[in-house]
Each structure stands twice: as structure tokens, then as C-alpha cells.
Amino acid sequence: AHDPRRLDEAATLDIPAVLSGHTHGGQIVLPGVGAIARRNFPVLAGLGSRGNTSMFVSRGIGTVYVPVRINCPPEVAIVTLKRKSEI
Questions:
Q1: Helices (H), the chain
Q2: Which pLDDT band, with edges at 50, 70 and 90, does 87 fall under?
């Protein structure tokens, strides 16, 4: 799912794992305030979950609107998926 706002929909459908991006990790993260985009997304970066659904959101390497990232380094994630029985 490109947009992590699909987390609730995926949880309703009982989808076990979702990979996402779109948020650029918040792109601009202000000290003491955090990411301005935080209020719009259930997960900005990293792992989040709802019910039986886990979602990983990559910060990615790009930007949107303004060509700058503040306190939000770019990331290329390597994700290894395993069956629950292997964990």
C-alpha cells in the first residue's frame, strides 16, 4: 500500500503484513515538536500494527513539496519476511 493510511483497511481485511512508504518519514522533523505530518498518518516510519496486521513504512530517499529533509535521514530498507512459525 503506497499510503500507510491503508492500515485500518488492511486490519479490517485481516491482512497480516503490509509494506508502505509515502510519508518520507515526516520529511521535516522539528526538535521538541516532532514531524508535522504525524497527525495525518498512523505510522510515519518503521513498524506499526492494528489487530493482526503489521505494517512497515520506509522513509525512502525522496522528498515532496520542498527538496529538503530535516532530522529525517533517507533510508533504503531491506525487509526479510518470515512465517510466524519461524519467528
A1: 7-12
A2: low
Long-range Cβ pairs for the range 35-38 (8 Å, 24+): 35/72
Residue 27, pLDDT > 70, answer yes
- 37-46 long-range CB contacts below 8 Å, 24 or more apart? 40/5, 41/4, 41/5, 42/4, 42/5, 42/7, 42/8, 43/4, 43/7, 44/4, 45/72, 45/75
Q: Which of 74, 81, 13, 73 is nearest to 47 (CA)?
A: 81
Whole-prediction pTM value?
0.86
